[in-house]
Amino acid sequence: MSDARPDAGGARAGSDPHEEAGAEIEAVAVVGMAGRFPGARTTEEFWDHLVAGRDCLEELDDTELLTAGVPASALAGPGYVRRAAALDGFAEFDAEFFGLPPSVAAAMDPQQRLFLESCWHALEDAGHDPAARDGAVGVFAAPSFSGYFGYNLLSHHDPRVLLGSGTSPALIHALTLTDPNFFATRVAHALDLRGPALTVQTACSGSLVAVHLACQSLLSGETDLALAGGMTVKVPHRAGYLHEPGSMMSADGFCRPFDAAANGTVFGSGGGVVALKRLSDALADGDRIRAVVRGTAVNNDGSLKMGFTAPSVEMQAAVIAEALAVAGLEPHEVGYVEAHGTGTVLGDPVETAALRQALDPAGDRTAPCLIGSAKGNIGHLEAASGVVGLIKAVLALEHRTLPATAHFTAPNPELGLGDGPFEVVAATRQWTGPGPLVAGVSSLGVGGTNAHVVLTEAPHAPPRRTPAPTPAAVPAAAPDAAPVLLVSARTPEALRDAARELAGAIGPDTDLMDVAHTLAGRRAFGFRAAVSARSPERAAALLRADRPAVRVAAAPPAPVLLLPGQGSPYPRMGEGLYRAGGVFRRELDRCAELFAAGTGRDPRDAVFRGDAADLLRTDLAQPALFCVEYALARTLESHGVRPAALAGHSVGEFAAACLAGVMELPDAVRLVAARGRLMHAAPAGTMLSVRTAPEQVLARLDGSGLELAAVNEPGACVVAGPPEQAAAFSALMTTEGFTVTALRTPHAFHTAAMDEAAERFAELAGRVPLSAPAVPLLSNVTGDWMTDAEATDPERWARQMRSTVRWSDCVRTLLTGTGPDGPGRALVETGPGRALASAARRVPGWSDAHLAVSAMRHPEERIDDGEALSRALGALWETGVEVDWSGTRHGRERRVPLPGYPFRRVRHWIDPAEPARPAGAGARAEVRERPRTAEQRAEVTPEGAGRGAAEVLAGIWAEVLGVASVRPDEDFFDLGGDSVLAARVCGRAQAFGLDLTPKDVFEHPTVSRLAVRVS
Q: Most buried one in 161, 225, 504, 807, CB count within 10 A?
């Protein structure tokens, strides 16, 4: 962070560093963390172990060690120590999640694999999906030596051949998967990160140097989000080590930082990642800031020491002083230092002397400075130790707690602590101070590269804003839109695990809006589940419920808005949405004010303060329905749901036409107001719903005085006419066994009773400018797509009020793929009730490719309008429809810690080759099923070498990719192939007389196509 100069000013004791940071010194926010630690798979488990002062190393017995490959001669020696800092699942990996074939996953260094998973979890913890970001995301990473390559992989080759023959495709392939040079770039490729990807190799200080470089990159503007950290996986893994007197390694397998009994360190496995952003960006984006990096520095000892591996007091002190100067802080403000603290005879005294020189330069410090080291709990994680110390310090700042230093009983006399201000944290304690807490983190590398980071606790979260006041026209108590919890995974099993883990993380006091906000920032995968609930208990129950998992289609269904007609309104429809404010209230108010200005009647009176009788009046019901439907459609649009087509039932067709651009909103309001007034003045009439096919109804209408008003689905029609005739017809149909229901309408719409109203309406419609639909629109009159000529014909809009509503035909047209957007449809009932969505499922052509949801509750449902809308949005998202969740935010949400992706880890591991032994010598036998080679496949084929090219190529592909079989139509690159593996395919193919080049594989990526090419 050298671009922030010491003389630029900064906070001093008693001030809030963050208040001054924004104006004078830009800082870096830690917004996400993840890792794998001895005895802990998460940072939360790691913190629990730290607070408990737990030793996470394991005792190993000789049987296990012999199985791991430790020579019996080593075990028999006096210096072999049977303890290890090991990781659970070190050989496991979710290769499918990262799109890697099994053969590549098995050959990849476990350090790369665990670091890759940790990077993904750190991004999730930060609430950021790189694919959704415009800025550059960088990776700065530090690995340790790859024992996997040297011990496991190389054992399957003669080194004199593999290495002595010079560079070869096989060697290049092995090195790209294990060599430290590719540690950071592997992450960048797997996660499609396009900022700098730098591997850092400064030995033990590597991962903290990576943090320093990440901060520099952020502050220079080179990156906008950075991942920094490291990972160590020792191979052989569950193995001890050889101790020699006078060496840096512990004689008894215990690491005792700063303790009088310290006798050396214990090297182990583990690591972590932090996600970093500029503090100003993190504050502006509402990120969960876990701590703030105020200053970093890196230097080298040079030759100011006894030897290459020895430490230097002067340069260690210098790097601390430089980091403090960059941070703009005074030495006495540092309250805790997470030290390198290896527990070695030389290292601890030198480090303590450097701390004293940097943090108490005049020897007059009175404020205490506490020191500790995580190495007592988990051992020395080599290149990853620095970032693990940083993660511990961040957690200590978050919890305002300093964990005990494991195995510490009394200070090493060589430290010279005496009665001075420095004190080792012997027991877990609360951490308080007169001002913001400040911590330092040191990491010191063999070879002399020293790194130090200065942290302060996160700024206070801004107070949550209160929602907008509710107008007096609506009752005061109002819920916001219900939160939608989004869960997704690459497999059905992982989706189930993710939902259950999320349910386990939800407690009685969980703020579901915070959870929803955090989940919305994560990547959406092919298998999805969306849960909408008001209470944590209900949300957890829904998440635990089993339900079938369906993959999102390659082409998600296109949204179509269905706008219902006059029989659907009910009192207080949409009241919850109106009360919550936002787009719905704004657009409804806009429509209502236009109606009020033209008619003197405010539709909001009928909707929110009226009763059912008001909504039976056509002149009131139609304007009220238009207002609600138009506002709801615009609300869906604000959530990113933009219709591919529109269809309205009866008066709903006017709202659909307005949304499609056929008429402007003021003109649509004038037409709907006139339509409702004219139809209200028509003679009284009755409308009957009859549950049977239209042919059955038409056969009985002759002489009845009734007409066919609507065909809503193949087995449901509406007839209408004068009340007396309607009563007689109802009795007749009931006697014949048909189900007949009188609709809540006072007139016989879509019959000859509307002729006079239609004639007068045509005159009014002729004075309104009409345009061709900008969005495909269905016609009630024809049941087909509305042509431009129809849309712009005033007579057609007049004829619509007396013509039969051919709704069933409209839906059939949608479902049969005759529209411009293909067969998959997501039908969204955009208005009160569920009649249209329900009827659509009974229309021929309905299939699993389609979806029907209602965006507003049924009047009998005991949920609020916000939850109904949220359920509809969640259902759309589950099918792959793009939803903009920012519209559900109120500015009060915060990102919160949640479980990360539940990787489906399986063993991907190449065991070391067994050494050749004479027959009968007691060699350990292991039966293991391996993919057959292409030659072995030929042996079991009757034709042998005379097989067809397709069969030969399928065998080669399966062998190279490490899969059981390959279908003729499977894409090589979809299976995880790449250019290196393509070259290996070509090399193997030559053994069968097939002449191929990698270019051929790229141009013909399936077995069937490639077989044609070689034939």
A: 807
